[in-house]
Design goal:
The chain is mainly α. The chain has 18 helices and no strands.
């Protein structure tokens, strides 16, 4: 990698880099959750039902999930700081468009552009850390990044609820502008440029791969959302079938492309494959449960937007306090134990959320479920990120980060599109979710627990300080 400046975390330059990385990924993660509590208000003001609310969330996840691979690969090829800055500008402009959207169609379109910007920000922020922070400090740096990024995700519902009740749902998007205004000059001043100068990076960019994965996911998600909300007919079934076929063509393309967006040889590593499989099921459970919990609290239990957002404040506090320490602990004992225990604990918390029904008290039902879920999530996130990156060669850190983040968003995208219908949730705008909410929480709990089982069988138990032996099957 050319021109890489390696810095210690305790140095001024190291601290500034972490600040920029957290701000950049933070606004992208924040926007993935801040909108949740605003959905009932958006549905009322823009006159859209459950499918429209799903599209406001999934429009963002669609382009984000589809283009994260391209974002990570572009950073490796053209410069990690450069692509990060492009993403920050695109995201900010799209946020303004969301804030002034006159109808649901314009809002969904602007959300899709936000996803494009976020696809550069999220893998770019992590690649900046892994390429520039001294390896001795990398575990703690990733722990800080994961913890603070998790905090911004968890803070989203509370901040969104406050903005909806105090001002308007439009401010859940406009709040990104001042944050980006802070991040942009800091990145220009304090973040060094780095890129991959290997032969892989000099090959032609995989534009066809980017088109195929985007079209495939779009077809799949369109069919799932519209089929469940309207009717399963030739159009919706055909969309699912075409989407699946195009995604299969994307995987075939990646075996032939000179510089693939998805380097399939990364999956020769058992740990990389296992970490990403765990990511898929855990983040599917996380995304759909948070989407439905905020609707349940407002539409079934009568919470205000602010009260619904405040219900997730314990997640913010627990992740902020616990994530850096978990990162340090995982470096000492190895990632397998926390990655096995964490998702199972989070699954118990989701199962407890099935008891959140009309008449439930916050202290007796909502709070214990949120706390248990948050503890499990905190135990999981940092070791998962570290285990995935440890399994990837240094030249592939941007691509590996893009793969992992894409898988997490695609897991959430498909879960939000499909699980409400599977659970039998068909509520009209403002109506209670009914018994389907409990079914959805139980399914989500099972997905989370599956992530723990996968981790127990695939993740290396060696501490980071122990000698690491790269197997013959692991990519070099």
């Amino acid at each position: 990698m050319r021109g890489v400046i390696v810095m210690r975390l305790a140095s001024a330059s190291g601290r500034w880099l972490i600040v920029v990385a957290v701000l950049g990924s933070g606004i992208a993660f924040l926007d993935g959750t801040v909108v949740n509590v605003a959905l009932p208000s958006i549905g009322e003001h823009l006159e859209t039902g459950l499918s429209g609310q799903q599209w406001v969330l999934d429009g963002y996840l669609l382009t984000l999930g589809a283009l994260l691979l391209a974002g990570g690969a572009a950073g490796d090829r053209y410069g990690r700081r450069r692509i990060f800055l492009y993403g920050l500008v695109a995201f900010t402009v799209a946020s303004v468009a969301c804030g002034v959207a006159p109808n649901a169609g314009v809002l969904i379109g602007a959300r899709m552009v936000q996803g494009i910007g976020a696809a550069a920000l999220i893998p770019g922020s992590l690649a900046l850390i892994t390429s520039s922070i001294d390896p001795r400090d990398r575990a703690r740096a990733i722990g800080i990044w994961a913890g603070m990024s998790g905090v911004t995700s968890a803070l989203g519902p509370f901040l969104g609820g406050y903005l909806v009740d105090a001002a308007s749902w439009r401010w859940v998007f406009l709040i990104n502008v001042p944050l980006a205004a802070i991040a942009l000059p800091l990145a220009l001043k304090h973040v060094p440029e780095s890129k991959d100068d290997s032969a892989r990076a000099r090959g032609p960019f995989d534009i066809l791969g980017a088109v195929l994965v985007t079209v495939g996911l779009a077809g799949l998600v369109y069919g799932l959302i519209e089929g469940s909300s309207l009717a399963w007919n030739a159009a919706t079934i055909g969309a699912v079938a075409v989407g699946a076929a195009v995604l299969a063509a994307f995987l075939w393309r990646e075996t032939k492309a000179p510089a693939p967006l998805l380097p399939l040889k990364l999956f020769a590593s058992k740990q990389f494959s296992g970490a990403n499989a765990a990511t898929f099921v855990v983040y599917a459970a996380l995304s759909v449960s948070m989407f439905l919990l905020t609707l349940q609290l407002q539409q079934s239990l009568g919470y205000s937007a602010l009260a619904a957002g405040a219900a997730t404040v314990p997640t913010t506090i627990i992740m902020m306090i616990g994530s850096p320490s978990v990162g340090t602990l995982a470096a000492r004992i190895g990632p397998r134990i926390p990655m096995t225990i964490g998702p199972i604990v989070a699954g118990v918390g989701l199962a407890m959320m099935a008891l959140i029904v009309p008449g439930s008290s916050f202290v007796g039902t909502v709070l214990p479920a949120v706390v248990v879920f948050s503890i499990g999530l905190t135990i999981t996130v940092t070791p998962l990120t570290s285990a995935m990156l440890d399994a990837a060669p240094p030249a592939f850190v941007g691509a590996a980060s893009g793969v992992n983040n894409a898988i997490s968003r695609i897991g959430g995208l498909l879960a939000v599109a499909a699980l409400p219908a599977v659970a039998g949730i068909t509520a009209a705008p403002g109506e209670p979710l009914g018994s389907g909410f409990a079914v959805a929480m139980i399914i989500s709990a099972g997905l989370c627990a599956a992530g723990g089982v996968i981790s127990g069988f695939t993740i290396d138990g060696k501490p980071r300080d122990a000698p690491q032996t790269r197997s013959a099957a692991q990519p070099a």
